[in-house]
Amino acid sequence: MVLRIVSPEKVLYKGEVQMVKLPGTVGQFTVLEHHAPLVSTLTAGKLVYRGASGEKGIDIKGGVVEVRDNNVVVCIN
Questions:
Q1: Per-residue pLDDT tens digits for 25-49
Q2: What is the distance between the alpha carbons of residues 22 and 47, in angstroms, rounded to a whole number?
Q3: CA torsion sign, 13 to 65 to 55 to 15?
Q4: How far is CA 1 from the centre of its chain?
Q5: DSSP letter assigned to residue 34
Q6: Residue pair 65/76 in contact by the 8 Å Cβ criterion
Q7: What is the mean pLDDT of residues 49-76?
């Protein structure tokens, strides 16, 4: 699946990943390939993703995520 992490200033990451962990407003959740479509708000915490070069994380202050058709778009503050 393709993950895009964007802020108001720039695209922070775009690439193929196997997994994304997100700090949702009502709790942390994980997105894997073929996940059901969803839109969720995010709270302060760590966004973690696993790609070809291993697992990486980004501290975020909040934002929103949309998951649809193996595309994960995260807009962070």
A1: 999 999 999 999 999 999 999 999 9
A2: 5
A3: negative
A4: 11
A5: T
A6: no
A7: 96
Tracing tokens 């778009």 back to the chain, one arrives at 73
Q: What residues have CB less than 8 Å from 52, skipping those under 6 apart?
A: 15, 16
Maximum alpha-carbon separation in the chain: 30
Q: How far is CA 13 from CA 20, 25, 26, 36, in A?
A: 12, 22, 25, 22
**pLDDT value of position 77:** 85
Q: Which residue has the tokens 């915490």?
A: 45
- Pick the closest to residue 60 from 14, 18, 12 (CA basis): 12
- The pair of three-digit structure tokens given for residue 67, joined into one six-digit string: 């998951």
Judging by DSSP bridges, how do beta strands 54-60 and 45-51 pair with one another?
Answer: antiparallel
